[in-house]
Amino acid sequence: QKEVEQDPGPLSVPEGAIVSLNCTYSNSAFQYFMWYRQYSRKGPELLMYTYSSGNKEDGRFTAQVDKSSKYISLFIRDSQPSDSATYLCAMRGYNAGNMLTFGGGTRLMVKP
Amino acid sequence: DTAVSQTPKYLVTQMGNDKSIKCEQNLGHDTMYWYKQDSKKFLKIMFSYNNKELIINETVPNRFSPKSPDKAHLNLHINSLELGDSAVYFCASSQDPGPTPYEQYFGPGTRLTVT
Fold it and tell me: What pLDDT score does B52 carry?
């Protein structure tokens, strides 16, 4: 079993829908939680970054962390075709150097 | 003005060959990384490197070796290529992480196919 699990999808939604993307993890030492977006044939780019539990909002995106359940979510409101990409969650412990642990990514398709 | 660049973008080669992938960053970062992304999209760190320290993921075969001529460049050399090495390899860079991590900036990837 991998340390970080993500449903690979694909998740197909109509334009304007609210999207929920999720990751579960097993390592209770993880303190920092990130969401990366990866367009086809491109490198990942950081979308959201949260520390410990709670919510963080940035425009149409909300990241949520529930450490008690070892569960993180990324919500996308008013989804757009340009949001079509693979979304990877990544995590790291406190003072854990350079090693991020990534999930396998969820492929999202937003249809016009 | 690409932040992190990699060459080549595509690499097709035969089993047993030795190949190198080059990476350059112009962000002034102290730390660079190599990641491997398999066909199922799992992104796994192989190495992180700064001027002071090389950290190796223990699952990486010693056929893989990072080489850094200076802090803006981190090349990946692979000896005796195997079919299982086929993947997309990403270079990334960041400020030197401390207790809290910094954003990692990724290059566009090198798609390696071993036949």
Answer: 65
Beta bridge partners of A11: A108
B107 CB neighbours in chain A (<8 A) are 43
Sign of torsion over alpha carbons B38, A92, A37, B5: negative
Q: Which residues contact A43 (CB under 8 A, 6 or more apart)?
A: B4, B90, B92, B106, B107, B108, B109
State the Cα–Cα distance between residues B73 and A96, nearest whole angstrom. Answer: 24
CB contact under 8 A, A41 and B109: yes
- Provide block-wise average pLDDT over 10 residues at a time, chain A (112 residues): 88 97 94 94 93 90 95 97 97 78 95 96
Bridge partners, residue A50, by sequence: A33
Distance CA A42, CA B110 (A): 10
Strand partners, A108: A11, A85
User: Inter-chain contact B106–A45, Cβ cutoff 8 Å?
Assistant: yes
Closest CA to B114 of B43, B40, B17: B17
- C-beta atoms surrounding B73 within 10 Å: 14
Q: Would you give the distance in Å from CA A94 to the centre of its chain? A: 19
Q: Which among B37, B34, B25 has a CA at the least distance from the CA of B54? A: B34
Kindly determine whether residue B101 and residue A88, on different chains, have CB atoms separated by under 8 Å.
Answer: no
